Structure formats: C-alpha cells, structure tokens
Request: fold
Amino acid sequence: MTVEKQNIKHLKPPVFAVAPMIDWTDRHCRYFHRQLSWRAVLFTEMVVADAIIHGPRARLLGHDAAEHPVVLQLGGSDPAKLAEAVRMAAEFAYDEINLNVGCPSDRVQSGTFGACLMKTPALVAECVSAMKRVTALPVTVKCRIGVDEQEPEKVLPDFLARVIDAGSDAVWIHARKAWLQGLSPKENREIPPLDYALVHAMKREFSGTFIGINGGIADLDAAVAQLIHVDGVMLGRAAYQNAGLLTGVDAAIYGEGALADPSPQGGGTPSFDWLVLRDTMMAYAERVMASGGRLHHVTRHMVGLFQGFAGARRYRQILSSEATKAGVGPELIAEAFAAVDLAAGPKAAAGGAATGGAAADAARLAG
Reply:
C-alpha cells in the first residue's frame, strides 16, 4: 500500500545541508549545529537497518525536537529490512529518510551496502520502492558518481533514472568516484577527482527532481556558487571543523537574518549572539550529564567553532584537554568562551557569512 506523500518543505530549493558523518553527526552535534542555523538540514550518522530492528532503538534514533529539519540516514541493501526499519523509526518523527549509497568503508562493504550499491542500481531501486510503500516521508538517496572502474558519465544517468523512477524524492550526489579497494575512507574523500560538471549535467537531465551536490565545498561562497546549477549543497568536514560558518547559512543561502537581533554596534547588520550560544550549550550539557552522559560528549563537537578569532587556540585547548577530566561540569564551556575575543570577531573571513558576489547571488537565489 502506498502511503500519501507529506509536504516536503525542507526540500524546496535552495537547500543547505550538513552531511551525515559517522562518529561525528550524532545527536549532540546536531543540537549544537541547530543553534548556529535555523534552516540548515541536518543528517544523522548512518544507522544500519539491522541495528534498528535488533538493537537499542531509542538510543540509535532518539533526538531533540530542536534538531528539525533532521534526516535519518539508513544503511542496508535488503528491501524488506529497510522497510521494517523505516516503520520502526516512524515514532521518532524524522523529516526524511535517506539511503546511503556512498560510504566506501570496508565495514560497510562487508555488509553489502554503501558505495558498493552503485554496482546494483536495480537493487537500490527496489530498496527505495520498499521504503516508499511504508512511509509518508520523503525517501531520498545519497550516492557517488560511480565506483572503481565504472565510467561515471555512463553509469550515473542510469542509476539516477532507476532510483527516481522508483520514487526517490531527491538525490544527493558526492561528486567523486569511490575506490572500494586500495583507498581508505579518508582517501576516498580527497584523492578521486571532483566532477562538479557531471552533477550539474545530471540536474539538467533530471530537471524535475531535486539534485543536491556534495564533496570538496569549503565555504559559503563556494556553496552559493553551486546553487546556480543544482537545488541543494551539502558540506561535511568544512561545516564540522569550522562550525562558525553555519552562522552565515540562514542569510547566505536563504536570504534570512542571522539568529540574533541586529547589533547597533554593527550598523544594523545581523550579528550572531555568541553568549546566547554559550548559555544554551551549557544548559544542554547539564541535561546530558544529568541523564548519564559526559561533558565531552557535547564539547567534542564544539572545538572547531572559533576559527580566525583571537583566543581560538586557547578555546580549543580548554575543550580538548579539560572536558574529559572527572568532576568537570558545564561551566568549562563558559571558561572556554571567555578565552575568545568575541567582540573583535574573526581576523579574516572564515566562511561565517556570505561576502562579495556570494551575497548578491544569495539574494537572487532566495528571491
């Protein structure tokens, strides 16, 4: 039985997303990122369908209401198991279900899912179809342009045609091949050359489907430039390691003001309120610790926040070396923030906001 589709507001172009990253984009990371941008679409780490069916479901799927819009990324290759995992996840009220067809790690390959599924597009289409039958949520796919000796310009159009025909509401494309043997996951994020032009061509060919791009996009200027060609842009390591750039997403991508009220000292321009962020994260860390978590579970995601600010090195030292010690509480976050010259701001543009031509392009995109 096909379930009636829900309104997909968060997939209305242009879209900015933070990529799913194993061991990084857990619920504490997503809560932190949400304080930096109201509009960015956040993804979970990949969760294997078998783990949801047989494992601690609440721990794997639980999240804070503040995280929305938030996407559950699933790993698997058995249509029936993926459908069952989607049914079980329904009570956790995600905004979208995404199928991982891009991860190249050995562990994922041993389970016959992730990037190796690029070799079996018919099976991916079956998985998408099975998931669509049991949920009203959008079902999407995140893939590579190809793997191993495949010729991306030949295999990618066929892959997209099959998954779109099966009902995929969007496809996020990492614009690199993956080499399943001989390269580590880290090397697969850096060594295979990027082919943005091919992804742009796929958007032209499949103009009626949301196509988003991922891979090697380092800042908001580059993100806005990509949105001339595709519907969405996804940042991974750049957004995590320089989280401050997320404070510029709502203005640069969506044409909206920053999270804070305009600052009189800034001549009426939007100014992010770092002290509100500090207090919010301290309160959140207190809740996490009260429920049995550790301070480090929260603060490890905050280390890359103040790139370019005076005092950032000391900030990183405090969170990296002190947060794991016994007896340390949320007040450590205040101590770390106090080491940073917040009033002076970054010494140079570090991707925190759109500048120059990107700001003008953002206004056009938002309009």
User: Anything to note?
Assistant: The two ends are 38 Å apart (CA to CA). The chain has 17 helices and nine strands. The beta strands are 15-18, 41-43, 47-48, 70-75, 96-101, 139-147, 170-178, 210-214, 232-235. Residues 200 and 294 are 44 Å apart (CA to CA).
